[in-house]
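Protocol step 4 of 6: structure prediction from sequence.
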Amino acid sequence: MNRAMSLIDEAKTAEERYQSAVTALSADFAASDLNGVDTFADCHIRFPLFLLATHYWEGRWLLEMEKVLPDIDKEQKRSGRKAVIPRWHRRMMLMPCAVATFATLPGKMTCRAKRGNTFVDDYLYDFIDLLIIDEAGQVLPEIAAPSLALAKQALVVGDTRQIEPISNIAKPIDLGNLRKFGVISGETDKTSSINILSSSFSSHSGSVMACAQNACRYQPYPDLDRGLYLFEHRRCFDEIIEFSNVLCYRGHLQPKRGPAKDIDLPPMGYLHIDGAAHSAGGSRFNPTEAQTIARWLAAHRESLENRYRQNLESILAIVTPFGKQAQELRQACGAVGIRVNGAGAMTIGTVHSLQGAERPIVLFSPAYAKGMDGSFIDSSTSMLNVAVSRAKDNFLVFGDMDLFSRAPYGSPRKVLNELLVARPENALEFDVQPREDLKKKAAEVKMLRDADDHDVFLRDILASAQKTIEIVSPWTIKSTMEKNGFLSLMRDAASRGVRIDVYADPLLNDRINDDGVSQYDEAETALSAIGVNLHPVSQLHSKIVTADQDVFCIGSFNWLSADRVGRYARHETSLVYSGDEMTSEIERFRENLGLRSPQ
């Protein structure tokens, strides 16, 4: 009780002193207006005091140097504590902030101390007034520990939602070290081990930033980790940083740049690519994806350079989860004249290559393809958070969009997918690029251009197929099928025993006609009447036609909905691969659709 009463008296005295000080500053604001007082002090009090302190310490430095000047040559060679500490004090009088790395700082804060009959190296423990650690989310605890031992206080700045540090110490070794040095007992149970590891000072799963948050008692935002936050974000357009806000920061970020404007590409865009992924050791690569990105960049180089008045290499960066895909991208981009090595090279690499950097445009190459779960991308929120938040104007995904649409709800990929498909204009258009793996297998490869080529091809398939036909057309419109004669051709094919399966996206076909029937239901009724199966597949991006086991056509053409003439007719391309070796690719395609289509 006595201590409580004493603290209350101290608080009253402090409040009276504060009221007196504020009144002396200005009569333009109330003492309770903390923001007003703070702003006034910044503009009228703190800067003059800073200048005064600067000149004061300059004078102190002159006086101290006057003392050591007569013996300056010998003084510089002294390494004992009595010489080193005053030397650091003199330095700080002129330059109170020193910058160092964790590798060099401990070596700077040394002195010589006598132990028995010999001199040994010693450190200036607890000597630094304030150690400020930047990018602390990337620093392993054991790397920072020596420097922290030299400081009285630490201000730790970073973001655990960015890239984590890379540790070479495995979890069993980590636990073994903790037991060896008495941090945990040999009998520690599993629950206690988990609690200790969750404190974030273990090497294999911790960071200095996480340690600081775990130790900090200040938590003004219960739904976030402990500590203070800088919420204002000025780098990205609002549409881009919304992803990070939803995924990592619980909506607390305050976008300050504003919505996208005066740009030719969507702030959040994608180009669907039906490629094939290959394994290489523990990595993956997707040649079709890399080739498409390189040719898209070559096609858009002039317009991008004219817009930004910079070289393409400075405007854009490419990020991928896999080192092998980064090599594939460098090779493909180098082949079209993009500088990928040396000074001024384009940044192409894993997400670590962009940590702390930014570009007007960032391309993301996932490298995965159909049939793969892609869960590695979701193993940490940091991968996509860093990749997306480095883009100032545009974040563009070049890959198989099924990888994102099929991701688990709430995962980083799913959150990204919802933003990418939110607007139809987010879908980019570009000529489909040939797949080298299919070219090697196919007996014949043919390019289809524009609506006429596609219509002739589909009519031929409907007239000649013997067993099966599959048509993947995200938009499927009855009037388009009637106008182009597809319904009658499908009826004839079905009547001769051909199984025809059409796959469409119900959400894309949800427009209600004048009779109150949705576009999807209308198409389903028309197709069912002639013996054709219509399968609903949500968030469908592929445009594919297969026939029997030897024809596989893939491209960008909406087979059963595209306008053939008029202002909405577009330049579309597809590639037809024919031959007996197409069977495995067709089976892979069917298996993937079967997983996505309700039985």
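Step 5 (inspection) to follow. Residues 42-96 form one domain.
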